[in-house]
Amino acid sequence: GxxxxxxxxxxxxxxxxxxxxxxxxxxxxxxxxxxxxxxxKGEAVSAETVSSTAARHEEWCSHAKDxxxxxxxxxxxxTCLSELPNRPLLYSLYSYVWDLKxxxxxxDQFIHWLETNEKAQQASDFFADNDAEPWMFRGGxxxxxxxxxxxxxxxxxxxxxxxxxxxxxxxxSVFTIRPFLPADERAMYKVCLVxxxxxxxxxxxxxxxxxxxxxxxxxxxxxxxxEFAYVLEDSDGVCGYTLGxxxxxxxxxxxLSEWLPVIREKYRSALGDLSKLPPAxxxxxxxxxxxxxxxxxxxxxxxxxxxxxxxxIMPHGQGKGMGKRMIKCLLSALKAKGSRGVHLEASSExxxxxxxxxxxxxxxxxxxxxxxxxxxxxxxxx
Length: 382
Description:
Layout: H1 24-30, H2 40-82, H3 87-116, H4 140-148, E1 176-179, H5 185-194, H6 212-217, H7 219-224, E2 229-234, E3 237-245, H8 248-266, H9 268-271, H10 279-289, H11 299-304, E4 307-313, H12 322-336, E5 341-347, H13 351-359, E6 375-381
Parallel strand pairs: 4-5
Antiparallel strand pairs: 1-2, 2-3, 3-4, 5-6
Helix pairs in contact: 2-3, 3-4
């Protein structure tokens, strides 16, 4: 430590000098006076310290950049594994590579946090959550690593703990979230159909045209916005998807000019007489046939929430945390492309879906005149 004024190096009290003969320089050196100008030596030391600090900061940033690059390679490895045509090999390695990816992701996000030191409201959404993977105990290496990393204060903590006890999940199914491939489209149409009745099987609603619901809610995205399409896959194949568009107005313009004419031509014979069709088929065909049909997108929504999304998961894939992970995956992709926020529509009768979105930070904005009948509009800032 430094010697304090009035204390000798030997820690014995030193009487204070009160003689007027003591020079101002000596008082200053003893800490009794104020030095108005730093000495040349002090300036040199200060400059050297600043230079050393800047060099260490530059070195740290260089190492951080290299670390982010290596973490990205791990993510690429996981993506390549998810796309393996040899599914038995995938299911054998998947749990291990996923665990590796999760651990690297924790470290990568922590380094990002150190770089920015920001405490954004939704910061915790981008870190490890409380949803255990179906093949592992809650805890393990990831949990041990979380305990070693200091937490942020308040509701935006890096890691959260809801107090749920550790347990081995009974369901040992292995799920994969990966980017959409053209070969997935047929299976995605099926998922759309069997979740069409407020999340339940809607096959009975479309007895004449089972692909109609898919042509309305899946085809436009897989053909016009495939960059933001992700699928959920298990050992039986695709069992869920999440779809989105970065710029909703641009997407809907393309929908009207490129996709709608194709669908109208496909259902030309059915559009002639809708009176004998079931209500669900009649509703969608009437909407597609309308010449003045426009999506519900207010200026207020578009300004702050230009992107939109929707998600469907078959019943056996629900309740396992996969929906949350898929939404986070899509939101991250939208944010990376510069989106300010996202909105979605949900059936007012689908209370389970509304509760799910609310847990992910979506809220219902005040809309002049209200949303279309039977629907709920929800938004989330990015």
